[in-house]
Amino acid sequence: MDFIDIHTHKKQLSENVFSVANKYPVSLDFTSPFSIGIHPWFINKNKIEAELLILAKKLQHKNCVALGECGLDKVIKTDFELQKTVFKKQIQLSEKYQKPLIIHCVKAYQDIVELKKELKPTQVWLVHGFNKNWQVAQSLLKNGILLSFGTAMINHKKLQEVVAKVPLEKLFLETDDKDDAIVEVYVKLAKLKGVPLEILQQKIQENFKQLFLKTT
Predict the structure, then answer these.
(1) Burial 108-127 (b: 16+ CB within 10 A, else e)
(2) Is the pTM higher than 0.90?
């Protein structure tokens, strides 16, 4: 578990990388560590109840470490109230089966914060692929929502300034659907934080074990 990729759509072949593969209710391969959720892009109101039943079953699978990605997206055509309904139902499953929540969010960060305050979940919430400003990051962190950064951090100067301010115990790293190696993301963050790569690896391993393996 040298390098942890908290969210990826690619199959990881490297032996020194522990990756959490993103899965959907229609996925078939659950032989490696995974998270599973109903992504707002793929909400079909005729299939919601059936897919929620699949989630409930897969959340009990020995390889499942989290629920997600799920969340809210204001730039898609799917009715926003329907998105919120589906998101809330997944939050309920996250609580029932004690699985952390990996969140997809586009232009709905305040809505996420408001739901966190309203529902007062006991499970960890993590916004994946964070690429917004420090003000948004502060709001999420203040409300107990962790952040995961991906390959955008490698060349995005303003995002580098943001991640440099986020405490190590509040963040994770990922590749999402990109081909870049997770090692590149780690190396970049180590430079930004001014810490040895080995220390960064150890810290994120500690984060993962504390937050994602605490119920196992």
Answers:
(1) bbebbbebbeeeebebbbbb
(2) yes
